Amino acid sequence: MATDTPVEDLTPLDLSAHLEAPRSAAPKVRDRRLPSRRGNYEMYAWVFMRVSGLLLVVLTLGHLFIQMVTDGGVQKIDFAFVAGRWSSPFWQTWDLSMLWLAELHGVNGLRTIINDYAERTVTRSWLKAVLYTSAVLVLFLGTLVIFTFDPNV
Hints:
Layout: H1 12-19, H2 41-70, H3 79-85, H4 89-117, H5 121-148
Helix pairs in contact: 2-4, 4-5
């Protein structure tokens, strides 16, 4: 309300209208038929956590059952046992699948925790950078060990 009347001479009703904050435009409503510009990354991350969790349960319980029950238990596991296992592409793939799924599952969970609890953007960025760097290092070294394991060392 733009008047030339001094503020002291305004009635309480006029004064409230005079002091009222300018109104902003109504928020834009996104058309649900159009895809979001942000994408569905969080939905895919959520689905990945559920699927990878189920696969990890199957792979891990299968691994423990085979190693501990059918192959004679912990006392049988030594360098020669691992060398014999990793000479088979089946066991290399099994262990590589467990490594990659467990690492990516854990990184996705920690990424979610960082997003939830790191309040400052700079802190969040640094924590994620450390997380992703360590994940790449572990995945690279683990994959390298599985595929280049030499039993003749």
